[in-house]
Amino acid sequence: xxxxxxxxxxxxxxxxxxxxxxxxxxxxxxxxxxxxxxxxxxxxxxxxxxxxxxxxxxxxxxxxxxxxxxxxxxxxxxxxxxxxxxxxxxxxxxxxxxxxxxxxxxxxxxxxxxxxxxxxxxxxxxxxxxxxxxxxxxxxxxxxxxxxxxxxxxxxxxxxxxxxxxxxxxxxxxxxxxxxxxxxxxxxxxxxxxxxxxxxxxxxxxxxxxxxxxxxxxxxxxxxxxxxxxxxxxxxxxxxxxxxxxxxxxxxxxxxxxxxxxxxxxxxxxxxxxxxxxxxxxxxxxxxxxxxxxxxx
Length: 297
Hints:
- With 297 residues, the chain is of the alpha/beta class.
- The protein has 3 domains: 8-91, Winged helix-like DNA-binding domain superfamily/Winged helix DNA-binding domain (Arc Repressor Mutant, subunit A); 96-161 and 267-296, D-Maltodextrin-Binding Protein, domain 2 (3-Layer(aba) Sandwich), CATH 3.40.190; 165-264, D-Maltodextrin-Binding Protein, domain 2 (3-Layer(aba) Sandwich), CATH 3.40.190.
- It has helices at 8-20, 23-30, 34-48, 64-92, 104-109, 111-121, 134-143, 202-211, 225-233, 277-296; strands spanning 53-56, 59-62, 96-102, 125-131, 148-151, 159-173, 193-197, 217-222, 239-242, 253-257, 263-270.
- The strands form 3 sheets. Strands 3, 4, 5, 6, 9, 10 and 11 form a 7-stranded mixed β-sheet that branches. It has a two-stranded antiparallel ribbon with strand order 1-2.
- Strand 7 (193-197), helix 8 (202-211) and strand 8 (217-222) form a beta-alpha-beta unit.
- The two termini are 60 Å apart.
């Protein structure tokens, strides 16, 4: 074996000759002259100190040495491509922007630590957060307005990565007659003035009542979760909301599990096609957070 180095062009020429069945076809595939392909293969043979190809009347076949190194040569080219793609991805993570659509409960309770850790790791990437209802977030993803959506509404044919699950809870003022209950049935709330959450979970809440064979007496429909909580605190009515909406340490209202239980599943929804390196990295952060949340349950 000589001290000459082996390069990518030589390996690619060697493999192309074998795959295409000859030097002429390989030259056409690679956009080179036939002479250029021959010289590349000859240089590889010189560097290795072995004959790799048998040439007989225009037909080409690998020698024993050529057959032996063919798999390694292909693996080497694939490894080089992986190095190139990784370097390109790292370059893309030096700067950029990720557009994230999220329902309000996840934006206030789930995303802050994730965004903080992501910013520490990738300080050059800007995270743009837009809050909306489940349906709005879903439509933002399908319409390309955001890169990633955090929602319970999963559009068909889109990738959905579970991030968190929470239970629906009945909430009411501490002065309410049902405040001391350990569980509340939908039937118990049927005659109450009901404050309907209009931030995305309305369909789920109506389904909870429907399964109980009753319908809520909706007095108010409120989009802003904080406004809804304020109304319940003041005794304007009762409501059913996802657990993430209820702040920890709440003193003026109570949150009671439902009988039977009802659960919501939040997923990071995206289309993998055309996802930027920055968006892919943030999606990975959401997936990791989801695994940690599930492990703690």
